[in-house]
Specification:
Number of helices of chain B: 11
Helix content of chain A: 25-40%
Order of helices and strands of chain B: EHEHEEEHHHHHHEEEEEEEEEHHH
CATH architecture of the largest domain in chain A: Roll
Number of domains of chain A: 2
Mean pLDDT of chain B: 97
Largest interface: A-B, 31 and 31 residues
CATH architecture of the largest domain in chain B: 2-Layer Sandwich
Shape of chain B: globular
CATH topology of the largest domain in chain B: Uridine Diphospho-n-acetylenolpyruvylglucosamine Reductase, domain 3
CATH superfamily of the largest domain in chain A: Beta-grasp domain
Oligomer: heterodimer
Low-confidence stretches of chain A: none
Low-confidence stretches of chain B: none
Number of strands of chain B: 14
């Protein structure tokens, strides 16, 4: 079949939609749901700007079909803030100047959130390895690492 | 980028998946983690009328030692292998390689079955399956069959898989005592394929001489390259710098890489030699030798 009915829970809200087989998850998120916080960078699964959580795992949504997310829970950067309060990772990126142009930031933060779910006390090396699939061309990563460390401390 | 249109199928059993492949023949392609296939479709390097997604078929995601074999299900994600205590225990080449495949986000989706069945000589796990003497379990319309990993690769993106067959399991013999393995990979950056990489597995006898050895290389030709002569040169010898260097030289001579952005043919052959040397040195140490 070329058209599929899917149900996806995005940031806690259930969505049902008809999608073409070839529709990418990132396009579903940005163009159907109008959640444009998730960015498209390289579009070739290198840069990680499109990173979202798919059933809790950080994945590159430019390289997942929307139909593959049928039945899954997706979290995007818009889902991090709760009740008007920034997620500690968002706060860390603000406090530690973890961004300049901001293009990689949503993906960078989603990967960091997934890291801190698995590892409450990551070393600098753990953080650098975790974000190895997220490219930032501005900061040199130093402040990104500090931002994640800030969040880790805050969440402990 | 948007792939060309295709029909998507999500079978809930292997039988159903095989029937879909049998019905659609060459027009169908198995979708596993999708980390190689979706970029191919998006870049329009290839197109298929039908994708058969095996991701929701139960029972294809496992790592277990059973009946003298390490069995890994085709849908097992790279991230799962990376965290596996069993793999870390005595399947060193596999444990070395997984953190060097693509990047952590890709490893959250990518599967060992996809890596092994894809037929891209740049994939890391084919050479490891060859070095570990794995049998690849294939399921098709006519039932199940096993193919030795070193008989599986027929050419650039060409494998022993029939049009109606699915790779379901990697079956790796449990290494005997005094065994060690290693994978050494040279790449330019995270996410890159190997400029050169070597998978090795050795078993020593009680006196410390090599009883069994296997060497296979990644990205050293249109298929993974098994360096049997190089491996044989080690048999019966207590491995030292000289015997290891000699084997590495023989292995490099077997390589036929092509020049690309990762380097010239000469450079890649030289790096293949160095990777074999490093991997052998590590494997011998892990086997309890010098």
């Amino acid at each position: 079949m070329a058209i599929h009915k899917i149900s996806v829970t995005v940031n806690g809200t259930a969505h049902s939609a008809e999608v073409e087989s070839r529709l990418l998850l990132v396009h579903f998120i940005r163009e159907r749901l109008r959640l444009t916080g998730t960015h498209i960078g390289c579009d070739t699964s290198h840069c990680g700007a499109c990173t979202v959580l798919l059933d809790g795992e950080a994945v590159k949504s430019c390289t997942v079909l929307a139909v593959q997310a049928d039945g899954a829970k997706v979290t995007t950067v818009e889902g991090l803030e709760q009740g008007g309060k920034l997620h500690p990772v968002q706060e860390g990126f603000t406090e530690k100047h973890g961004l300049q142009c901001g293009y990689c930031t949503p993906g960078m933060m989603m990967t960091s959130v997934a890291l801190l779910e698995h590892n409450k006390n990551p070393s600098e090396q753990d953080i650098r390895q975790a974000i190895a699939g997220n490219l930032c061309r501005c900061t040199g990563y130093v402040n990104i690492v500090k931002a994640v460390q800030y969040a880790a401390e805050k969440m402990r | 980028m948007i792939p060309a249109a295709f029909d998507y199928h999500r079978p809930s059993s292997l039988d159903e998946a095989v029937a879909l492949l049998a019905r659609h023949g060459d027009g169908a392609k198995v979708l596993s983690g999708g980390m190689s296939l979706l970029p191919v479709l998006k870049l329009r390097l290839g197109s298929f009328a039908h994708l058969v997604d095996i991701g929701k078929i139960p029972g294809l995601d496992y790592i277990k030692e059973d009946g003298g074999f390490l069995k890994i299900g085709a849908m097992t994600r790279q991230a799962t292998i990376e965290r596996s205590e069993i793999v870390r225990g005595r399947y060193h080449a596999l444990a070395d390689a997984v953190p060097l495949i693509a990047d952590p986000l890709v490893r959250n989706r990518g599967t060992i079955g996809g890596n092994v069945a894809n037929g891209d000589p740049g994939n890391d796990q084919p050479a490891i399956m060859i070095a570990l003497g794995a049998t690849l379990v294939l399921r098709g319309s006519k039932g199940e069959r096993g193919v030795a990993a070193n008989q599986f690769y027929k050419g650039f993106y060409a494998t022993a898989l029939g049009p109606d067959e699915i790779l379901t399991e990697m079956r790796i013999p449990v290494p005997p005592a005094r065994s060690g393995g290693a994978y050494a990979k040279l790449k330019r950056k995270v996410g890159d394929f190997a400029a050169a990489a070597a998978a090795v597995q050795v078993t020593l006898d009680a006196k410390g001489a090599v009883e069994r050895a296997a060497i296979a290389l990644t990205n050293a030709g249109p298929t993974p390259v098994e360096a049997s002569e190089a491996a044989r040169s080690l048999i019966g010898k207590v491995p030292d710098q000289k015997t290891i260097a000699e084997a590495a030289k023989l292995a490099a001579a077997k390589c036929a890489p092509s020049a690309d952005r990762r380097g010239s043919v000469e450079y890649k052959k030289e790096m293949a030699r160095v990777m074999v040397m490093r991997a052998l040195t590590k494997a011998v140490a892990r086997a309890g030798g010098r």
